[in-house]
Design brief:
Blueprint lengths: L5 E5 L5 E2 L15 E5 L34 E2 L4 H7 L3 E2 L3 E6 L5 H14 L4 E5 L4 H10 L8 E4 L3 H8 L7 E5 L16 H18 L2 E7 L10 H6 L2 E6 L6 E9 L7 E7 L2 E4 L3 H6 L9 E8 L2 E13 L7 E4 L3 H15 L6 E7 L11 H13 L7 E3 L2 E2 L5 E2 L4 H10 L4 E3 L9 H4 L8 H9 L4
Parallel strand pairs: 6-10, 6-11, 7-8, 7-9, 9-10, 15-19, 17-18, 19-22
Antiparallel strand pairs: 1-2, 1-3, 4-5, 11-12, 12-13, 13-14, 15-16, 16-18, 20-21
The protein binds thymidine-5'-diphosphate and magnesium ion.
Amino acid sequence: MAKSRIQFICQNCGTVHARWAGKCDSCGAWNTLVEEGTAGGIGSGPQSQKSARKGRAVALTTLSGEIEDAPRIATGISELDRATGGGFVRGSALLVGGDPGIGKSTLLTQAAAALANRGNRIIYVSGEEAVAQIRLRAQRLGAASSPVELAAETNVEDILATISDGPRPDLLILDSIQTLWTDLAESAPGTVTQVRAAAQAMIRFAKSTGCAVVLVGHVTKDGQIAGPRVVEHMVDAVLYFEGEGNHHYRILRTVKNRFGPTDEIGVFEMGDKGLREVPNPSELFLGERSEKAPGAAVFAGMEGTRPVLAEIQALVAPSPLGTPRRAVVGWDSARLSMVLAVLEAHCGVKFSQHDVYLNVAGGYRIAEPAADLAVAAALVSSLTGLALPADCVYFGEISLSGAVRAVAHAPQRLKEAEKLGFGKAVMPILSEELPASLATGSFQPEALSELVARIAAGTK
Ligand code: TYD
Ligand code: MG
């Protein structure tokens, strides 16, 4: 029989170390090694099994065959269904990650109520809140009368025993994975070993019964799902629920999806009666635009398959500092440096004596390189003090040589701009024809310097 021994597991990446150290060799994180026992735990390997059990034969089957239910259960909350790719998939496990207090429990309570009202059997197990607290939230959301089955429990074996009673549930929500613990692992709840073992047990339940399982996970300050980084690899889909501190809207972002598209977003607004869907996010991000201000450009962006317009604001001001300041909110600061360098090198615009501030309005985050052109336009507009035309959208990638490069989904971007009343666009040269309403007054520069010259000349 193998002797139980002590090992140290990095809570960040899951690497096993033989002895304690201040820093994990594998991921470089500090103070993340935690002592965990191996005796009989899941993942402790075959040598620690006390006696090998004789295997049981399973029946092999064919690819074709009866599929009893619809493979997906749609909630009817269209922003949520969009992010999951059309509803929760039966027999799959989904991880919903996000900062504490962002609204994960609220979202899942609303989803649970919507599904239960449609006649599904929904079980909500909370390890974080008492039944009374969950009831209070449900009352506030106007969901108290829906037939969701509720429990406050953290032990995996007890949960499994509870839910195997009665008909198979359609959806099981576990809030949160960090509070679950199983008898099979010896370490404390929240450690990698426990989280992995508990997730494995719940995923096994999902696969064997066909119930959809949703795991809620907290995210640490630096944006990683605390502890259960490992869980991301085990589940079928990962959604992140994010939002900026003081803004009311929340974005549900698909990071991984074995059964649907990634890069999808669902947009919600947090109000006093819970989360409200935002079917047209562009209106939200364009919010209160002042049309005459220099330094503002509207970017026609894409989030997955969905076009989103957002305002990019730049402030370029003479700097009293030897090394001027560059500050960015909502965009990549390395990308800003690149755009500034291209403007200096190829367009003769000098920023070396100026502080540069860049902000994406509404607290929205842009990840696309297609925003380059809008950023460049906003920067030049702020530097020259000349406002850009208010009815114009910008998109296009800028290469280091100063050329404007084509980006994907141009027709969808233009269609969204047209829908919101924009009459002009500045964009790369396209292979397709422009829509009639945007054709006049639109500008398709080959090089960034052409756009800079146009802004400097004050051409509207
Ligand atoms: P919650 O769903 O408990 O967050 P999480 O489960 O991600 O930790 O949401 C908590 C926050 O949402 C809390 O700060 C209060 C706010 N909230 C509202 O503004 N309106 C509401 O109707 C509800 C239920 C919560
Ligand atoms: Mg919660």
